[in-house]
Amino acid sequence: MASRSLSPDADSRWPRVIAHADMDAFYASVEILDNPALAGLPVIVGGRSARGVVTSASYEARKFGVRSAMPTVQARKLCPQGVFVPGRMKRYLEISRIVRRAFDSVSPVVEPLSLDEAFLDLTGTARVLGAPIEAARILKRRVFEESGLVVSVGVATTKMAAKILSDLSKPDGLLVLDQSQLEDFLAPLPVERLWGVGRVTLARMNQAGIRTVGDLARHDLGELREAFGSVGERFHQMAHGIDPRPVVADWRRKSYGEESTFARDLELGSDELRRVLIAHGEAIGRRLRADSIHARTVVLKLKLARPLGHGRYPVLTRSVTLDNPSDDGRTITDAATLLLAKVTARDRIRLAGVQVHNLERGEGGRADAQLGLFDGAAAGEDRRERLNRALDAVAARFGEEALTRGLAKAERAAPTRRIK
């Protein structure tokens, strides 16, 4: 494990202490944890069909150039000796909850970003945990003791710097940086290390002669505003190490989603495509009920089988807002099916997904629902709730595919339980 401070005195000049903890090759590491025979092998998690996508790759696989989001076909060419596994989202969620408990044991202020990474506010923990580097060591040790997995940690005075440090420390590393050397540390880094600098923005910055964070810090602020609008000033501030965003403990998911990439393209109006939407709607409903969440907006996502070149395909999205927020899979599926009926494209479908947005916590979705005109409407809602509880109990005991209204026989591109 690499563990070091990048500043001469890691205990000084700490207006805030923010850690970014990121599990190393999380899905692949869980597979190795459960099957030690895979240790030291190039393990690749993701869809195994011709249209599969890599979700996670062990560091042994990464040596061959395999990366997350890479098509499985390309991964097989780069690493033909790789061990390909389909992924087990239920198991990853289980381990994620264990890791989260370890995070919570170190700080009361934890902001999860995904199943395997989070920001932790360690400000004010010195009396209990010691200096920032000692607190980070405790965090790493507790994660390993609880889960059996390793985590890379970056500690700084800003979220941006902590995230960069954890990335640079991988695998199984720890880097700590105080406020005094923040700008000097950032200056030589590629400008794309900054949040918000994507492919298009990077190209525009490069055209302006901006290639490093230091170049951005030295660039005229007025020119940045003219070129990038209000975000130009934010880029300039980040380049100077200014990132006032706090760690937000009451983080909430913004959406839930499920999607499938098909082994063969489907007709727009086919029964198989509708079965896929049913399966996705039911899966989302189960997850909403498990988290006591209701959703107001349903989104249909379709990727058309019309190549645009460079592995790209056109994507259509359609959305609808429900009269009342819901956690019912059938309601979500009905909305997605209605949206599907409104699509006029003649192309076959390569991928289909369902997402829900505008989330509400607790039972609010039922409390403010409009009452039915007849008692039968309320009775129908009650029957549906009882049915959902029964389905949830069966799924919890025997698996999500033990009993369902529609079973999608299309292979997922990768574990696609989307949480944002």
Short description:
It is built from 16 helices and 14 strands. The protein is an alpha+beta fold.
Q: What this model shows, in words?
A:
It is a single chain. This protein folds into three domains: 1-178, Reverse transcriptase/Diguanylate cyclase domain (Alpha-Beta Plaits, 2-Layer Sandwich), CATH 3.30.70.270; 187-239, DNA polymerase, domain 1; 256-419, 2-Layer Sandwich (Dna Ligase, domain 1), CATH 3.30.1490. Helix 4 packs antiparallel against helix 6. A hairpin with a 2-residue loop joins strand 6 and strand 7 (117-121). It is an alpha+beta fold and 420 residues long. Helices cover 40% and strands 22% of the residues. The longest helix is centred in the C-terminal third of the chain and has 24 residues, at 375-398. The radius of gyration is 24 Å and the shape is globular. The chain contains 16 helices and 14 strands. The strands form three sheets. Strands 1-9-8-2-7-6 form a six-stranded mixed sheet. A five-stranded antiparallel sheet has the order 12-11-13-10-14.
Write the layout of secondary structure elements.
Elements: E1 2-5, E2 18-23, H1 26-34, E3 43-46, E4 54-57, H2 59-62, H3 72-78, E5 83-85, H4 89-106, E6 110-114, E7 117-121, H5 126-129, H6 132-147, E8 151-156, H7 159-169, E9 173-176, H8 182-186, H9 199-207, H10 213-218, H11 221-228, H12 230-239, E10 256-266, H13 271-290, E11 293-304, E12 315-326, H14 329-341, E13 349-361, H15 364-367, H16 375-398, E14 418-419
Parallel strand pairs: 1-9, 3-5, 8-9
Antiparallel strand pairs: 2-7, 2-8, 3-4, 6-7, 10-13, 10-14, 11-12, 11-13
